[in-house]
Amino acid sequence: MQPTPSRVPFVRRLAVPGGRDGRLMLVVAIIDKVGTGLWMGVATLYFVYVTHLSVSQIGLLLGVSGILGIAGPPLAGRLADRFPVTRLLVAAQLVRGAALVALLTTHDFGLLVLYSALGALPDRASSVLTKLFAARVAGPQRVRYQAIQRTAVNIGWAVGGTGAAAVLTVGTVLAYQVLLLANAASYLVMAVLTLRCTEPPAPGRVVAGPGGAAGGKALPAARPEGATPWRDRRYLAFTGTEIWLFLDDSVLQVGFPLWIVHATSAPVGLAPLVLVLNSVLVIALQVPLSRFGETRAAARRLLVPISAVFLTGGVALAASAGGGPWFATGAVVVAAVAFTLAEILHSLSSWELSVALAPPEAQGAYLGVHGLAQSAQRSLGPVVVGAAVSAGPLAWPVLGATLALACLAQHRLVRPKAAPDAETAPPAAGSGGSAEAAPDAPEVRARPSTAKPAGVRQPDGS
């Protein structure tokens, strides 16, 4: 019996958007997280037991690396509007691997800081380049692709972390060196696979015809005046709210362990289980929930339930400070589920809005600026969460309320701007002097034509 036309076949629902290149880049992302999982969990221990750095030196090393890494996203985004994103990714992967191997060559503190900082720059740049590649190769299905990718990389993290734990049972200097080299080797494998990917069409480049001056090569498109994120006050404000909304990462990784140990009667063993629960929920729910953020309008609507979930998580964490072990454990689990759900839904909303609000001809530069939000959160988040733990139970509902207010502010910020009056607006090119405004269309900009064949779903849901 043939399936009815209204039903999507199961195999098609499982398909990875972007065809062969989408699948290949998904494999690259998994290898990246397996390698990173092998190394990141033991990096601090490597600096303690192998290079014999003090705690203050390790803190300074990580701090300097984090500061330099902040420059990675905007630099990568700007370059991606001018050069092939696949080649930039390969360069970033090779530099990451080289900087990591360089750590094996010295125990000198100054050189270790230098090599770590040089590795942080392409590391942060790679996240923006990968996101840009996914947005280009998956097109209107970019939200689903991002959901599949997040699910896959969580599995990669788990595999890498498990491998690191197994190797560390040996506990020798050689064991740490093997983990470092395994991560460095993963970058080489990633570069080889990335080279096999076809460069996706970039709205920021135009192709000169065979008779043109470029001989058919891609050239940077002429960018309309003002098409820069640094003069786009709405996009900058959107990115500013994103810094605060990405705090869920620090709450889960830093806040929960500290709070469980210092303020609740829950067993200490619950701390690592919270991260396991987080990974399991992301793997189970990220793809199914992606359908709620597939358009700009849908992504904007998600901000309201996200605000409620953030507030629920804050109240539950505050409640966990009272009662016996069972009550505290239950409250912590409720809070962990709430913050994980907020993380999942926010990742969908953030992904779609960051792309939809960016003009195609400057997409790389815009996504580079948006990447600053996560980089800034990595520096700001632990400080904010540490202060909340120190302040006591009432700090968590306050933090949850501020996160909820940030969601509602962003909901208003990204609302569609009113279309120009029909009598004063210039006619759309090729429309015969009339055009119908989409209900959730972004502000009107001078853009290259993005017309698609009939039947192809547009990113904004039109």
Question: Which labels suit this protein?
Answer:
about 450 residues; mainly alpha; 16 helices; 2 strands; about 65% helix; disordered N terminus; disordered C terminus
Task: Please sum up the structure shown.
This protein is mainly alpha-helical and 462 residues long. 67% of the residues lie in helices and 1% in strands. A two-stranded antiparallel sheet has the order 1-2.
Overview of this protein structure:
With 462 residues, this protein is mostly helical. It has 16 helices and two strands. It has helices spanning 10-14, 19-40, 43-49, 55-69, 72-80, 85-102, 109-138, 142-168, 173-195, 233-245, 248-263, 270-289, 296-319, 325-356, 363-391, 395-413, and strands at 205-207, 218-220. A two-stranded antiparallel sheet has the order 1-2. Helix 2 packs parallel to helix 8, helix 5 packs antiparallel against helix 15 and helix 10 packs antiparallel against helix 16. The longest helix has 32 residues, at 325-356. The radius of gyration is 23 Å and the shape is globular. Residues 1-11, 206-219 and 420-462 have low confidence and may be disordered.
